[in-house]
Design a protein that fits this description.
Elements lengths: L1 E4 L5 E4 L5 H8 L1 H6 L2 E6 L10 H10 L7 E3 L9 E6 L4 H22 L4 E2 L9 E6 L6 H16 L5 E6 H10 L3 H10 L5 E7 L2 E4 L13 E11 L8 E10 L2 H16 L2 H7 L3 E2 L10 E2 L1 H20 L3 E2 L5 E3 H7 L1 H4 L8 E2 L4 E4 L4 H9 L10 E10 L15 E11 L4 H18 L4 E8 L11 H18 L3 E5 L8 E7 L5 E10 L2 H4 L4 E2 L5 E2 L2 E10 H12 L12 E5 L5 H13 L4 E3 L6 H10 L4 E5 L1 H6 L1 E6 L3 E7 H14 L8
Parallel strand pairs: 1-5, 15-19, 21-22, 28-29, 28-30
Antiparallel strand pairs: 1-2, 3-4, 3-5, 6-7, 7-12, 8-9, 9-10, 11-12, 13-14, 16-18, 17-18, 19-20, 20-27, 21-23, 23-24, 24-27, 25-26, 30-31, 31-32
Helix pairs in contact: 4-5, 6-7, 9-17, 14-15
The structure holds zinc ion (2 copies).
The site of one zinc ion has 7 residues, from helix 4.
């Protein structure tokens, strides 16, 4: 007999060889029908090393923690005491199992239609699954459509996924005889001589695979074959050109549809496309990749962001500073960047007096300003802020629009304070971060607290220091009632940190703001202040960035708003459309009046049809278009078209200005009056 512990803590004694499906059936047949896969953890061996390769790689493939926990087929005989979880469709792991099973269904369909195809491997991914295959003739779109149609047939056949084990030698011989060079490679790579290997069969199809799978092909209910891309076998261009066929699968058609709707939304919001369409920024091949050119309209938005940020910093007791872009290599040795961050920095430039390096971070600059004059406890906290340009090396080919670049601007600040001041400072940083997110239109955010792992030697500083710092961060988050996730071992080597991830309109998370403790740099630079006791002490240092990178934040803003910025951020706030030549003079008067009220206006004075002008402003996502004809000229009014709302009829120019000003004052994302 073996013991099975269920999530509610109850323990059942069952014969060895009982399956998870048996357990589910003994609870209820409905549960048995709903369950997708099982997760088990050896009961007696929570600490048993699961360093054996298979468990580790399986764990990494399915995202389970390496606590000996693993996913198994519902039909797998249980052979030891385990904690058992029956995973239904609401579980992320179940979805991966469905997707990987869909990859088998796709391989089945491919081989039935194109028997000459050789198979590589077919894992699940975050967005679906793929299968790497080799066939001399590349697959066409028509082939993909045929494969998808044939998959439906395999699903209808309701073939059971059956696990069989056989000797490694037999597997290797059989696959070699079939010319399945990739399977031979994977068996040799992932199994040891003398081991049994596992194969999964459905119908006439057999695949070398660790599993697990859903019970049968009919459980792959909603899927789509999406695209094909070329790749060399083992990434070597001397090898065969493989084809990676991508697909996705969900539990049901509704989820599948929602997924494609979402992909369309994401595509429509792509900041690289909108950046071009709205003429916000460019990246110029002649200048190099990962370097951003801000065009006038993007520049205006950036200025608005930066003005707000600088004003807020000053209001919140920061002092604005500026520091050089290149500094002596010796200084980067003192700061430790040369040693710990060197591979992200650009190589040294040799000048006549010394070697210099481009700055990847602003911290040492702020430290040198702090150090330039003696400090007493009365001077603290010292808060230096800078919109500092930094340069970090990213491999060519890894850059992505505004999100991953080689040169960017951090809204960086460093706070130097006494240990007694730290909690207030952290609390103020979090308030500030919340204010940034709210002001720029994000409702939701997630907080992560990264702490150390006392067993990991990379972390410097005593347990007392770490516990104290983590204690302060926790205390502040708790006092504010902010929920957070603690991530042990994820801190920087020099101190714990709080990361704030914002959630955009599509529910995507973006890591932007960070608040970070540091006791490394104050020690390296011998920072001091004279305490109340007359003795010299080392200040605590906090790094914090709220936009994070201005470039990246801008990219996120573009996607969040799909380029339809709130009035206060819109580069052109109002478009003016005179109906004909004779209304041009009146339009000029309205323009002057709006500009005098501080509103950014563009007048389309071209000799074009009214509708063409309106269309142009609409494409540019201008918040308001004001149309002026005979009636408006005679009554000192304008006819208002509001972005996303359409025609709103006429108001006087003064009324419009009042409305615009109130929207600007509140930084509202809405365009209708409150
Ligand atoms: Zn498989
Ligand atoms: Zn810093």
């Amino acid at each position: 007999m073996i013991r099975i512990q269920l999530p509610d803590g109850s323990v059942r004694e069952v014969p060895r060889g009982t399956t998870a499906l048996d357990v589910a059936n003994s609870i209820s047949p409905r549960l048995a029908a709903a369950v997708v896969v099982a997760r088990i953890r050896p009961l007696t061996a929570t600490e048993t090393a699961t360093t054996d390769d298979e468990a580790a790689s399986e764990a990494s493939m399915y995202g389970a923690a390496t606590t000996g926990e693993r996913l198994v087929d519902l039909t797998a005989p249980l052979t030891e005491d385990v904690a058992l979880e029956l995973l239904k469709e609401n579980d992320e792991s179940s979805l991966r199992v469905v997707r990987h099973s869909a990859a088998h269904v796709m391989a089945t369909a491919i081989l039935e239609l194109f028997p000459e195809t050789k198979l590589g491997h077919g894992p699940a991914t975050d967005a679906g699954f793929f299968y790497d295959v080799y066939r001399e003739t590349p697959f066409s779109d028509a082939d993909l459509a045929a494969i998808e149609a044939h998959m439906a047939e395999v699903v209808t056949r309701d073939e059971k996924f059956v696990r069989v084990e056989e000797s490694r030698d037999k597997g290797l011989t059989d696959y070699a005889a079939q010319g399945e060079f990739m399977k031979v490679h994977f068996i040799e790579k992932f199994t040891q001589p003398g081991e049994e290997i596992s194969l999964y069969k459905n119908g006439n199809f057999t695949d070398f695979c660790r599993g697990p799978h859903v019970p049968s092909t009919s459980r792959v209910k909603a899927f789509k074959v999406m695209s094909v891309a070329g790749a060399y076998w083992l990434g070597d261009e001397k090898n065969q050109q493989l084809q990676r066929i991508y697909g996705t699968a969900f539990f049901n058609a509704k989820d599948l549809d929602a997924h494609f709707k979402r992909l369309e939304e994401i595509k429509a919001r792509d900041h690289r496309v909108l950046g071009k369409q709205l003429d916000l920024y460019s990246i110029q091949e002649v200048a190099g990749s990962g370097l951003i050119f801000w065009h006038p309209k993007g520049g205006l938005i950036r200025k608005t962001m930066e003005d707000w940020m600088r004003n807020e910093c000053i209001r919140r007791g920061y002092e604005m500073v500026y520091t050089p872009h290149i500094m002596r290599r010796e200084m980067w040795k003192i700061s430790g960047h040369e040693e710990n961050y060197g591979e992200n920095m650009y190589p040294a430039m040799e000048l006549d007096d010394a070697e210099y390096r481009l700055k990847p971070m602003n911290c040492p600059g702020h430290i040198l300003i702090y150090k330039n004059s003696p400090k007493s406890y009365r001077d603290l906290p010292v808060r230096y802020a800078e919109l500092g340009n930094v340069y970090r090396y990213e491999r060519s080919g890894t850059m992505h629009g505004l999100l991953r670049v080689r040169g960017f601007t951090q809204d960086d600040a460093h706070i130097f304070c006494t240990p007694q001041q730290i909690e207030d400072e952290i609390a103020a940083c979090i308030d500030f971060a919340e204010s940034v997110l709210k002001t720029f239109g994000f409702e939701e955010f997630k907080v992560e607290l990264s702490t150390w792992d006392p067993k990991d030697k990379k972390f410097i500083g005593s347990a007392e220091k770490w516990d104290g710092a983590v204690g302060s961060l926790t205390k502040v988050l708790d006092a504010k009632g902010i929920p957070y996730k603690t991530i042990p071992g994820e801190a920087a080597f020099y101190g714990p940190k709080i990361d704030i991830k914002l959630v955009d309109v599509l529910g995507r998370m973006w890591q932007l703001s960070t608040v970070q403790f540091d006791w490394n740099l104050p020690a390296r630079f011998d920072l001091e202040y004279k305490g109340e006791d007359g003795e010299m002490h080392q200040p605590v240092m906090v790094h914090r960035a709220l936009f994070g990178s201005v470039e990246r934040f801008f990219g996120v803003l573009i996607e969040h708003y799909a380029g339809a910025f709130p009035l206060w951020l819109a580069p052109v706030q109002v478009g003016l459309v005179p109906i004909s030549e004779k209304h041009l003079e009146y339009a000029e008067q309205v323009k002057a009046k709006l500009e005098a009220a501080g509103i950014r206006v563009e007048l389309d004075a071209r000799n074009e049809k009214m509708n063409a002008k309106i269309r142009e402003f609409t494409l540019q996502k201008v918040p308001f278009v004001l149309i002026m004809g005979d009636k408006e000229s005679a009554t000192d009014s304008v006819s208002v078209r509001t972005r996303g709302k359409g025609d709103e009829g006429s108001v006087t120019v003064d009324e419009f200005i009042t409305r615009a000003n109130s929207l600007l004052a509140s930084k509202s994302a809405e365009l209708l009056p409150a």
